[in-house]
Structure prediction request, 212 residues.
Amino acid sequence: MRFDLVAFDLYGTLLAIEKLEAALTRILGADARALLADWRKAQLGRTWELNQRGDYEPFGDVTARALAQVASHLSPALMERACKAWLTVPAHPDAAPALRHLRSVGIRCAILSNGTSPMIRSALDAAGLPIDEVRSVDEVRVYKPDPRVYALLDRMAPGDRTLFVSSNGWDVDGCKKTGRMVAYVDRGGAPPVQQPDLRVTSLEELARSVAA
Prediction:
């Protein structure tokens, strides 16, 4: 078997951020779709800005500040309810079957995410996803794509036995630049510039390839 560990990005890769729209519509009304897109952009933008400044704040704070940036008209109560939706982001339908497949053949599954450990575990519990280990950028107090984040993979398994998986092209690039093995799940977003070791269109395809 080629890999002992497959480590997944969480938001966008295992969890379908676009499915937050339904929960946000109940809270914010018809503007939820446009707001979600702006919110996610601001959320990522803030993590990169913090990296550039050499500063850090937990992802929950990043999420709240990003929402205040794009929707300053919302009341504090609505902002709090909207931010709590990130604790229960629905999973992509291919996530649970792929994880079960990998674990059934003895491959450990982990998370390497920008989220805090409580945020990650809440989302995993809500989505019912079986994960063996969770690693958060909180441990190194810097965000992806800083190389120190991907170095957390080395604490879980040898580098030549570890595969990192992401559907975010910039995340794939960040990890690949550190010399690690990376799989890109093409979900229609901006693709990586670096050549991934494996390119698939679903997590089930990934599981079949890795477990073969």
